[in-house]
Amino acid sequence: MGKVILVGEIGINHNGDINIAKKLIDMASWAGLDYVKFQKRTIDLVYSKEELEAPRESPWGTTFREQKEGLEFDRAEYNEIDRYCKERKIKWFASPWDIEAVRFLERYDLPYTKIASPMITNSRLLQEIKNTGRSVIISTGMSTRTEVLNTAYYLGKKVEYILACTSTYPTPLQEVNLNFIRTLKNEVLVGSKSKVGYSNHSPGIFLSAVAASFGAEMLEFHITLDRAMYGSDQAASVEPGQVIKLVKYVKALEMALGDGSWTIFPGEEIIRKKLRK
Hints:
Blueprint: E1 5-11, H1 18-31, E2 35-40, H2 43-46, H3 49-53, E3 55-58, E4 61-63, H4 64-71, H5 75-88, E5 91-96, H6 99-105, E6 112-115, H7 123-132, E7 135-139, H8 145-155, E8 159-165, H9 180-188, E9 195-200, H10 206-213, E10 218-222, H11 240-257, H12 266-275
Parallel strand pairs: 1-2, 1-10, 2-5, 6-7, 7-8, 8-9, 9-10
Antiparallel strand pairs: 3-4
Helix pairs in contact: 1-5, 10-11
């Protein structure tokens, strides 16, 4: 087993506050995560006029539009995110939910574009993402085998990771289906250079650590300063102390899994000479 790539999904857990975003970047960097991830939406393209006018109580007002606009970062905030991640020596990328968001993110030198599960069948969005030439991560939540295969085939060699995922927040145990990681390896990735990963939406860190033992080479999980904060993703997120524990568990697992070969280890040789009859 090689190194497991760890992605802290900040998403919208910053609640539209750049200072909260920077605290989450600090935590991810200090804990030793490889990346942090955000979400980028152009509100009027992602949601209909009717949706935006619907009532929704939030810290920013009483409509769905006010909530979504309150949560969304624009150019000044993303410029600061880009600068601050460089300062903290951690890389970032994002999930664009519309074509304008793809073009917006092209301003930055990002390692990946993440295709969120709801967007996997959006052909116009996939075409725009393909045109960037950037490496891609796909999540499989709420998607059929055919939908995943069609997306992977269309994007071709640019698909670096396909993440097993269940799109419920938080995910109940009976819907986690960790064995799907093995299904992806055996049915989808045979003969492919893509790697399999796991995007976790369950509380805590246990399932993410176990997913690595099932062969996940990338772990993505939501991070937060406090699960009691406002926001739809907070309950399925991991707090700072647990993030640190998860990193330790995964590093220990990387070492402990080994290569599976028949081996007599050096420490056993002394015992072997002493006890073998």
